[in-house]
Amino acid sequence: MLALLLAPVLLQMVAMAIDEGLYHRRRGLPRWERLGHPVDTASVLLCYGWLIATRPDQPNALAVYVAMAALSCLLVTKDEAVHAHRCQPGEHWLHALLFVLHPVVLGTVGLLWWWQRDLWLLPALLALTGGLLVYQIVYWSLLWRGPEPR
């Protein structure tokens, strides 16, 4: 059962790696995306951190998580106006997949938190997401030296 629930999480990781490793590096990211993508990642990091810091039986713990997850789901769509003009069809499709997976993953992780508090998955996801955030900040703000995309 756990393997089935983890499938969307793994699919999201693969899709993110393709988006970042292929599409973003190929076209470069304008300043708006270089700043916005770490904000998206931080919103997910906060969701995972909340689950680690709280127990499902605490008052309002679930309601706060649902609100945080909903905000994260809305936040990740903010770049679509930029994407509409800059992305190739394959990247658009991948973004659509990521938009579908985002609430599924947050819902799945929340469900697992509800069922089993000390699940190894939560610290692992927090660490992986934190690593992605560090990469996004360091690579796109400090290391990347490509031209500003038009």
Topology summary:
Blueprint: H1 2-27, H2 31-53, H3 61-75, H4 80-86, H5 89-115, H6 121-143
Helix pairs in contact: 1-5, 2-3, 2-5, 2-6, 3-5
Question: TL;DR of this structure?
Answer:
This protein is an all-alpha fold and 150 residues long.
Structural class: mainly alpha
Give the helices and strands as they follow along the chain: HHHHHH
- Major β-sheet, in short? none
Poorly predicted sequence stretches spanning 5 or more consecutive residues: none
Q: Could you tell me the strand content as a percent range?
A: under 5%
The number of domains is: 1
CA-CA gap between termini: 46 Å
* Spatial shape: elongated
Helix content: over 70%
Q: Determine the mean pLDDT.
A: 92
Total number of strands: 0
Count the DSSP helices: 6
> What is the alpha-carbon Rg in Å?
16 Å
How would you portray this structure in words?
By secondary structure, this protein is an all-alpha fold. The protein has one domain (2-143). The chain is 81% helix and 0% strand. The protein is built from 6 helices and no strands. The protein has helices at residues 2-27, 31-53, 61-75, 80-86, 89-115, 121-143. Helix 2 (31-53) packs parallel to helix 5 and helix 3 (61-75) packs antiparallel against helix 5 (89-115). The longest helix has 27 residues, at 89-115. The N and C termini lie far apart (46 Å). The mean pLDDT is 92.
